[in-house]
Amino acid sequence: MSGATIPSAAADAPFGEARTYQLLIRVARPLTVTVGRFGTFDFPAGWYVYTGSAKRNLEARVRRHLSAHKTLRWHIDYLLAQPGVAVREVRRFAEPECALNQRQTGDILIPGFGASDCRAGCGSHLKRLPSRLSFRAYFGRDRGPRRFVAGCSARRGR
Ligand SMILES: [Zn+2]
């Protein structure tokens, strides 16, 4: 089994408005993964955040990421298919994916990963976190899911 852990259904934007999602990914032990023709890379154990988007039917995309049985297509598919890799949380946003990704703290270990379609210079749409706690700290501990997006917009000068 791999990638099949069902995460809590956090929703940071109302379902109908969300176009962007983040997956909080746990890699339980160090891995070396061949990502299709992109290359073979080492993934240290730890916590990762993947930021993606779907113009239509975001929920179907999220379900696909959580499914253990699928054709490997995107870079992230190859990581999620590994034993010991699980999606622990899913968050949804109305914010454009690259803006969100660039605000996301974390280290880029694999330049270009998940960024084949990126035109914003993100470098990678997969980032490794110093700890799971840093994901919590970034979003705040006890915010209501929708209040976060509202507060974020307000801080950005609306
Ligand atoms: Zn980007």
Written description of the protein model:
- With 158 residues, the chain is of the alpha+beta class.
- The chain has one domain (8-155).
- The protein has 5 helices and 7 strands; from the N terminus they run βββββααβαβαα.
- The strands form 2 sheets. It has a 5-stranded mixed sheet.
- The longest helix has 11 residues, at 145-155.
- Zinc ion binds next to α3.
- InterPro entries: DUF123.
- Keywords: Endonuclease, Hydrolase, Nuclease.
- One of its GO terms (molecular function) is endonuclease activity.
- It comes from Propionivibrio dicarboxylicus.
Radius of gyration: 15 Å
What overall form do the CA principal axes indicate? Answer: globular
Number of individual domains? 1
Kindly name the structural category: alpha+beta
**Separate helix tally:** 5
What string gives the helices and strands in order? EEEEEHHEHEHH
In whole angstroms, the N-to-C terminal distance is 45 Å
Name the beta content range.
25-35%
Q: What kind of sheet is the major sheet?
A: 5 strands, mixed
Instruction: Name the bound molecules.
Output: zinc ion
Give the uncertain stretches in residue-range form: 1-11, 140-158
What is the percent of helical residues? Answer: 25-40%
Mean pLDDT figure: 81
Biggest sheet strand line-up: 1-6-2-5-7
InterPro entries: DUF123 (IPR002837)
Protein name: Uri superfamily endonuclease
Pfam families: DUF123
Keywords: Endonuclease, Hydrolase, Nuclease
